Amino acid sequence: MGVILKQVLDLVSRRKVKVSEHGFDEIDADQISVREIVEGIRQATPIEEYPDFPKGKCILVPQRDGVGRPIHVVWGIPRGADSPAVVVTAYRPDRERWETEVSRRV
To answer: How far is CA 71 from the centre of its chain?
Structure first.
């Protein structure tokens, strides 16, 4: 498990979570609930880490919604801060662009 994911898990366990404005738009568009995202982080494994992202380090993880359908979530931690864990975006991955349980790009 990567360092960024450990930090995100710790923040989520302490309920230090925020959803970005963009994240809310994407979540709404794909009919994903914030609760599903927050609860699903416990089973997440990293796909890609972005430690040097300009707005702060972030990580892309595959998760499942409440009925088991795959979703991708980008979690971040703002640059220069220790919290909160931010849901940058979440979406249902396009199966034509992702393979092996939507965890590897085609």
So the answer is: 9
Q: In whole angstroms, how far apart are CA 76 and each of 69, 97, 103, 106?
A: 22, 23, 18, 24
What are the pLDDT digits (tens) for 38-74? 999 988 999 999 999 999 999 999 999 989 999 999 9
Contact 88, 22 (CB under 8 A): yes
First-to-last alpha carbon distance for the chain, in angstroms, is 23
Q: Is the pTM of this model over 0.85?
A: yes
Q: What share of the chain is helix, strand, coil (3-state, %, to 5)?
A: 30, 30, 40
Collapsing DSSP to helix, strand or coil, 20 comes out as coil
Contact 89, 74 (CB under 8 A): yes
Strand partners, 63: 71
Measured distance CA(70)–CA(90) in Å, rounded: 11
DSSP 48-77: EEETT-TT--EEEEEEE-TTS-EEEEEEE-
In total, the chain counts a number of residues equal to: 106
